[in-house]
Amino acid sequence: MKAVVYKGPFEVAVEEVQKPRLQHPNEVIVRVTSTAICGSDLHMYEGRTAAEPGIVFGHENMGIVEELGEGITSLKKGDRVVMPFNVACGFCKNCVADYTGFCLTVNPGFAGGAYGYVAMGPWTGGQAEYLRVPYADFNCLKLPEGAENESDFILLADIFPTGYHGNELAQVSPGESVVVYGGGPVGLMAAYSAMIRGASRVFVVDRVLERLQKAEEIGAIPINFAEGNPVEQIKEQTNGEGTDKGIDAVGYQAMARGENREEPAAVLNSIIETVRPTGALGIPGLYVPADPGGPDEQAKKGRLMVSIGKLFEKGLRLGTGQCNVKRYNRQLRDLIISGRARPSFVVSHELPLAEAPTAYEKFDKRIEGYTKVVLHPGQ
Q1: pTM for the complete prediction?
Q2: pLDDT < 70 stretches in the chain
């Protein structure tokens, strides 16, 4: 089968690889119909992780069940399904507690597993024609038959639940004001989710004009940090108080304000300044324990200069960690089915799998409007 294979920094290729086979009675083989490129895939693409050449990318996947293990009870051939990026067993201590992003079974020695991602277990990615899904009764979310809302449902694999998770970490409530740092796909999903949860005002901070325009189109207030200090811009619009809640949808590759260089703690420190005393922060943006491309020796070890004193002084609460997709994906699916959510507004390009190398290059460079790419292996 054809799959997107990592070759080295800034290079992927679509190559022939072995088609997956069932290895356990609780597995299924899914024929992939949609698979998305995620911002976190770019960390590997850029050589900012320990990923080795040969890894098949792709943790945002959906498709049609084609083969079933003899132990499968809730699925049948032909079912349309979407899989959380978290590979989870469903029965360990963390899964039972709804922390499926921190499964203790699927990646021995580490809490958490994922498809096609470095250090996240042996699970091959789904930017391919077929995907092996373990613990499939637990991991597959069934969808309505047909092809309707394909570009909405694919976002249930990661970014829609992850944006919602940022709101859950920050405990966003109706009527509150929220700042979202980062207007990429997860940031836009966080802003969209804040509105679904009833936020009164949502600010989105970025400097990419297409992202800020998208934020404005969904009713958020765009803040261009290239035009001035975002903290000051937001406080001017909140009577000097700041927002009730804040969400970091950027992570460790944050850019220094007014400069074209990375400053890994820039967003963390800005969000601490932006949120009012006794507010709360949600940090779904990715931070890593090691970053080979970090701007200094401490950053390369995942150690950042964060204003912990200001965080303490303001009495801010803090929630972190990757999304436990299973906690949210059924409810978000039903919002899509009912017509109350259309997250596909973030999708900028839908392309055949063969165009993945070009899509990675343009998405990484943030050019030609590439904001969220969905690949279709069947095209």
Answers
A1: 0.95
A2: none
